Amino acid sequence: MPDDSGTLYLVGTPIGNLEDVTLRALRILREVDLIAAEDTRVTRKLLSHYEIHTPTVSLHRHNERQRTPELLGHLAAGRSLALVSDAGMPAVSDPGGRLAAQAVQAGCPLQVVPGPSAVLAALTVAGLETDRFAFEGFLPRKGVQRRERLEQLAALPHALVLFEAPGRLVQTLRDLQEVLGKRRAAVVRELTKRFEEVVRGDWDALLDHFTARPPRGELVVVVEGVSRPDRAVWNDRHVSGELERMLEQGIDRREAIRLVASLSGRPRREVYSLALQVRAPSGPGRERL
């Protein structure tokens, strides 16, 4: 891509209230040549509210593979592009990751325009210890895969943040109760919108509330991490699962052993023995012990 290629702006948009948008985001959306939006109908509501007339084009999970080369060509021609999702930051549990990655590979300038985040907003109002947290996004839909993933997450000592659809919330709360055991949690609904709601409590309280009042709208679930006396949940299966996850993310095996030993409180030699049984993805440097 030539040196005079256009800039790709990753722009945060409101998660509910249209006044959540930043002044810089509004300026960028006015100045760019084109806006790539997850749903142009949603984005046009924001643009119309602030009298912004920049052309839009759709970029969603159903057309991302086909649309990305077109947008890269737009950038290569020296035209600027803003990438937005329906709410929050693009490319995080939303379309756009492919475009951003390929733009980087092509040498295209990228700039982030930070904005509202449902994850951080939910953590802020959850009323739990959230100095450290893990963002999981949406859990697998299938029961077996969902349970396996929850078992891998069960021993995390820090808060867990999930996204969930209204129709699956009650079942997800039941699964969390069964696999994670006694925890406090918060379900945050319709953040910054008119009917914003935060429901806090143990699993029984949350299940009672949402069984009686089926939820609507966007949902974020925040779960407190496992307490230190409960670290016994780090059995061999959990340790092996976490090692496998880290190796799949490209973490060096030696570093993965150190991290899992620190998280679990188990002796490093025990984690080392389990690591010998975990196959790592192929790649340079990942088999060193």
UniProtKB/TrEMBL annotation:
GO cellular component terms, semicolon-separated: cytoplasm
Domain Tetrapyrrole methylase: start-end pairs: 7-203
Keyword Transferase: yes
Protein name (database record): Ribosomal RNA small subunit methyltransferase I
CDD domains: RsmI
Keywords (A to Z) from UniProt: Cytoplasm, Methyltransferase, rRNA processing, S-adenosyl-L-methionine, Transferase
Pfam families reported for this sequence: TP_methylase
UniProt gene name: rsmI
Root EC class: transferase
Taxonomy of the source species: Bacteria, Bacillati, Bacillota, Limnochordia, Limnochordales
EC number: 2.1.1.198
Stated family: Belongs to the methyltransferase superfamily. RsmI family.
Record PANTHER family: RIBOSOMAL RNA SMALL SUBUNIT METHYLTRANSFERASE I (PTHR46111)
PROSITE patterns cross-referenced by the UniProt entry: RSMI
Keyword Zinc carried by entry: no
Cell location: Cytoplasm
Reactions it catalyzes: cytidine(1402) in 16S rRNA + S-adenosyl-L-methionine = 2'-O-methylcytidine(1402) in 16S rRNA + S-adenosyl-L-homocysteine + H(+)
A GO molecular function held by the record: rRNA (cytosine-2'-O-)-methyltransferase activity
Function in brief: Catalyzes the 2'-O-methylation of the ribose of cytidine 1402 (C1402) in 16S rRNA.
